[in-house]
Amino acid sequence: MDLTQVSSSSSPSRPKKAPASEAPNLAQYDERPFLKRLGIVDWLFALAMVAGAGFALSRYHPFMNYYDKLVLVCAVPVFMVLGWRWKPVRPLMVGIAALSLLAIQIYHGDLSRADNAFFLKYFLSSQSAILWMSALFVFATVFYWIGLLSRSPTGAAIGSKMTWAAVLMGFVGLMVRWYESYLIGADVGHIPISNLYEVFVLFSLITALFYLYYEQHYNTRALGAFVLLVISAAVGFLMWYSVARDAQQIQPLVPALQSWWMKIHVPANFIGYGSFALSAMVGVAYLAKERGVLADRLPALEVLDDVMYKSIAVGFAFFTIATILGALWAAEAWGGYWSWDPKETWALIVWLNYAAWLHMRLMKGLRGAVAAWWALTGLLVTTFAFLGVNMFLSGLHSYGKL
């Protein structure tokens, strides 16, 4: 008797063995505890992270206060788990560390070498690295659009690689700029997230990193053409701001910013801003697909909806943390947790906007074009809170005037 002809009603069904080309990724179904799934490469990466932090503490501890050291120590397990969960970020971390240390070695304590040493002048000084970042983001945008419009996997792949390279150069630029600030003077040295020039770089990098994660997670590069548009817009502003206001020059911190709170409040804020910007551009892709524009080249509406939701959820969580940290900082700096300063008021408006979006999503099942339009409108509100307040209003937070 041919057992393959036995019906499922007469015997338990057995799953057929999938061909090798169709076999699922067994790692996704591994039910062992997470730590037991780690291999030797994972633990070597963790060891490298610990060794790197130890080197930084031993070499640069005179420039660190108690809070700097605490942030560095706490960052190690965070980046360790990030590298375990998202393996493509490992070479990025290694590259940032290697190029930053190379730049520091070439400087050898002399800031004037930025104009004389070849690699500093054209690649590794903060201004050079950030210029490379800017150019790579713009070219990445072009290649993503070439890939999308011509259905060319090669074009999109080049755009993706350029985005990774831009993120590498951008973070190197920030790390080297941090070092350069101390070469100007010990009293000038500070983490480079204190003015519009620096935070626009940070915004571009965070938005790109979140996009690259979703690109890999959903195995699609079609969204790069849309997300890189907002990053290129930020780069365009950055270039204008540099030329018109000479904003790339490193300036001493104003007294109110000379606080360790800045080192955690600002990054948390811009993780929120970057996630909100990404969700808005995914909303644009959703609206385009729904109207039949590039519909056969974009991911399914369900995928776009999921990316939009996850981006807003992550952004809202970090923006909430940033708002709480900002209130604690305000209490220390100005003696009160909240003063209805224009920046605080608009931050509250942004928070309420996305809180309402999430409430409608979770409680009322918000989906479709309404959710996409709302996410896009949220970007306009967020942009005004981020930039418009500095342009048109004044208050306690007026540190980044145009």
From TrEMBL:
One of its GO terms (cellular component) is plasma membrane. It holds the Pfam family Cytochrom_C_asm. It is found in: Membrane. Keywords: Cytochrome c-type biogenesis, Membrane, Transmembrane, Transmembrane helix. The chain crosses the membrane at residues 40-60, 66-84, 91-109, 129-150, 162-179, 191-214, 226-244, 264-288, 309-331, 343-360, 372-393. It is a multi-pass membrane protein. One of its GO terms (biological process) is cytochrome complex assembly. Residues 7-23 have a biased composition (Low complexity). Residues 194-397 form the Cytochrome c assembly protein domain. Residues 1-23 are annotated as: Disordered. GO terms for molecular function: heme binding. It comes from the Bacteria. Signal peptide: none annotated. Coiled coil: none annotated. This is C-type cytochrome biogenesis protein CcsB. It comes from Paraburkholderia aromaticivorans.
